[in-house]
Amino acid sequence: MEENDIYHERQRLQFCLMHALNNLLQEDSFSRNELDTIGNKLAAIDPDKERWSPFSLVLKPHHNALTGNYDANVLISALESRNKRVIWHDHRNHTSSINLIAETLVGILINIPVRRFGGLWKSRHWVAIRRIGDVWYNLDSDLAAPKAFSNADEQRGRSSSGEADGRKAVGGGECLSMEC
């Protein structure tokens, strides 16, 4: 498959989870409205609801109402709404616990800590890595275009180290895989 035939959304605000999900599914599957709704439903059923404050209008338990910045609970609920199986991988094992040649494995989502603006801003970023045919691609929404990995060892090494597009993340990250 040609790289320009691969569906790839680019980063906008802190909607990296929406972009990562759509890039992973290879279509415009999730909208901001749908992910906000999922986050709000998760907050409504949360047994540890916090007291309301003026900040509650913007800083929701599972996302930021203005910029996105969704958490793993939204990711899991979103994929399960599409009948996808999500497996959480312990970050201490990196990606060594993932069978990259399993036929049911569609892709990997990694939540890595990153520094932006010369290290002044620390945040987290969702990155999608997907197998298309026999090739694994880095579908990071910060990239201008999808990047093919030369082999599974390179893909495993990049996702284990929390590295995306050659930039080193600050520490390790959460890792989830999606299966059909």
TrEMBL record:
One of its GO terms (biological process) is proteolysis. Its EC number is 3.4.19.12. Keywords: Hydrolase, Protease, Ubl conjugation pathway. It catalyses: Thiol-dependent hydrolysis of ester, thioester, amide, peptide and isopeptide bonds formed by the C-terminal Gly of ubiquitin (a 76-residue protein attached to proteins as an intracellular targeting signal). One of its GO terms (molecular function) is cysteine-type deubiquitinase activity. InterPro entries: JOSD1/2, Josephin. The keyword Coiled coil does not apply. The active site is at residues 16, 125, 140. It is an enzyme of class 3 (hydrolase). The keyword Hydrolase applies. Residues 3-180 form the Josephin domain. Residues 150-180 are annotated as: Disordered. Gene3D superfamilies: 3.90.70.40. Pfam families: Josephin (PF02099). This is ubiquitinyl hydrolase 1. It comes from Vanilla planifolia.
